[in-house]
Amino acid sequence: MTKATICIDSLETDVYIGATEEERSRKQKIRWFISISFFDRPKACKSDLLEDTLCYDHIVNMIVETSNAKKYNLLEHLVETAYKKIKSKEVRLLVRASKVIEGLTSYCPSFELKSD
């Protein structure tokens, strides 16, 4: 079976996020990785019509809206909120967000949710 997946890699949003009030007082860069796998190949593969698939721009807008909706304490809650907005019954979904910390190149803390 051929797997069909839409990926949105390295989308960056600025989010008020952090465990402390001081951290949440300034926006921090979050890098998103979204992978949407279809149970069945989208009709758009043959039709070449936007209405037969998921619109990338719509997904990006949902992430941006979620990022701007409020201040978040934890990356886990931010990812869960975005996950719930995007998830539908027709797809498998992976949502991962990494906190981009300036001057820290050895790692980026991240959190991921993946549907079965």
Automatic annotation (TrEMBL):
InterPro entries: FolB_dom, GTP-CH-I_C/QueF. Pfam families: FolB. Residues 6-106 form the Dihydroneopterin aldolase/epimerase domain. GO terms for molecular function: dihydroneopterin aldolase activity. GO terms for biological process: folic acid-containing compound metabolic process. This is Dihydroneopterin aldolase. SUPFAM superfamilies: Tetrahydrobiopterin biosynthesis enzymes-like. SMART domains: FolB. It comes from Candidatus Phycorickettsia trachydisci.
